[in-house]
Amino acid sequence: MSFDIRVNPNAPAGSLEAKQPPVDNGLDVPDPSRYYVPEFMRKEWERLWPRVWLLAGITADIPEEGDYFTFEIGHESILVVRQADGGVKAFYNVCPHRANRVALNEFGSVAHFTCAFHGWQFECDGKLKCITDEETFAPQLVAHRPSLSEVRCDVHAGLVFVNMDGKAPPLVDWIGLPKGYLENYQIDKMHAVRHVRSTWNANWKVGVDSFYETYHLPHIHPQTQGVMEDFSQYDLYPNGFSRMIVPICNVSHRFPDQKNVNPGQAYMMAEAGMKPEEFSGTAGEVRAAVQKAKRARAKRLGLSHYDNFTDGQLTDSWATGLFPNVQIGCHPEGVFIMRFLPHPDDPKRFYYDNITMFRYVDDPDYFVPGWMGLPKGTDVTGRTRPTIEHVPEGVKPELGEVLDQDVELVAAVGAGSRSRGFKGPLWGEQEVRIRHFHRELDRYINGEK
């Protein structure tokens, strides 16, 4: 059996849009205990999280020298700081004196860091600046000039990554995507316009699994059928990376009316600057018309980076998985970054962290696409960085109708994974990304990497 959907059958071989060759990841059915037992979680903390490159944040949050943000992963807090030479460094956010957090805010800008416990100070490059009452310390205790412990850090396409054990391959080699794939979107020129963090009642891998396929769309999100084809193109890349191209502005092949333009399509045409009431084509012709309108608008606004995109990229979602715990919904106007962060102690809970980014253009015809689900009145200019919205446990994150439905779905799957009646996931051809992800995960857990 082969499920081989190609969004663009005419895409040149080797192009970013072309269907990738299949990868044989076998047909093993993994033990479902990986989703809930503390022992598997312990192995992840030992063999996965310290050894991989982790997406810590975005360069847009640290534009100037001394700007910083903190990244929380398990029991670790990592401090990422813009340097005087324009580079980026990362440190464990812990004072070498008595283990207090050096930075207590999620974002900030400083000339140097001062520990609030005893006033020890550190330069932005991590070096010790001064010790309060240093004469009261035995010289042999502080002769080595205790500084902040540095964490390996690198930047790619406007994204900041850290590696805790310092042994991972260079970031450019570890990222399993073709050259230009992420760079073309110019994420470094976008800004965060909303950042929400909520707690979901399931293992972090249940979250990854749920967002790695569109097989569930007609059942959990039937409202998407008028504007989205749920048969996606799935592609697998090295090092556990993957993507799915989700055709947008098309009606699903399951949708009863394949001819007449529906309200959802009309809305998307209006977003692209079209006048839906003047469109005389069929539902099947909307996607191409929107692509043409977006390209013309970009040319008028001088957005030359649109020249790097295929027509399909102007409408479709290139939902791209960065192993192990990130998915980025890539669009020319902005990106939607999802991070699935493990709970420090409970394998049956995780933090769903998402950053909505937008490339602001001061023109009334260029605005935030509806797919972002931003609340009315959201500031999208990028002048101020929004604070992280910490959603209390048990409260829906209010990320739009579709994502709120996913909250309930993921919790149900998380609970079901612990049932005696569940013997393990049976992944089909529309779930190859999930199998690819778990196969790479097992390489770390089993000591193959």
What class do helices, strands and sheet pairing give? alpha+beta
Number of strands: 18
Number of domains: 2
Instruction: Give me the CATH superfamily of the largest domain.
Output: Naphthalene 1,2-dioxygenase Alpha Subunit, Chain A, domain 1
What does this structure look like?
- This protein is an alpha+beta fold and 449 residues long.
- It folds into two domains: 32-51 and 178-260 and 300-445, Naphthalene 1,2-dioxygenase Alpha Subunit, Chain A, domain 1 (Alpha-Beta Complex); 54-174, 3-layer Sandwich (Rieske Iron-sulfur Protein).
- It is built from nine helices and 18 strands.
- The strands form three sheets. An eight-stranded mixed beta sheet has the order 12-13-14-15-16-17-11-18. A seven-stranded antiparallel beta sheet has the order 1-10-9-4-3-2-5, with no helix packed on it.
- The radius of gyration is 23 Å and the shape is globular.
- The model has no long low-confidence stretch (mean pLDDT 95).
Concise structural overview:
The chain is an alpha+beta fold. It folds into 2 domains: 32-51 and 178-260 and 300-445, Naphthalene 1,2-dioxygenase Alpha Subunit, Chain A, domain 1 (Alpha-Beta Complex), CATH 3.90.380; 54-174, 3-layer Sandwich (Rieske Iron-sulfur Protein), CATH 2.102.10.10.
Sequence-ordered SSE layout with sheet pairings:
Elements: H1 38-47, E1 54-58, E2 67-73, E3 76-82, E4 88-92, E5 107-109, E6 113-114, E7 121-122, E8 128-130, H2 139-142, E9 150-156, E10 159-163, H3 171-174, E11 191-200, H4 204-211, H5 217-220, E12 233-236, E13 242-246, H6 263-271, H7 286-301, E14 317-322, E15 326-330, E16 334-342, E17 350-358, E18 389-391, H8 401-416, H9 432-445
Parallel strand pairs: 11-18
Antiparallel strand pairs: 1-10, 2-3, 2-5, 3-4, 4-9, 6-7, 7-8, 9-10, 11-17, 12-13, 13-14, 14-15, 15-16, 16-17
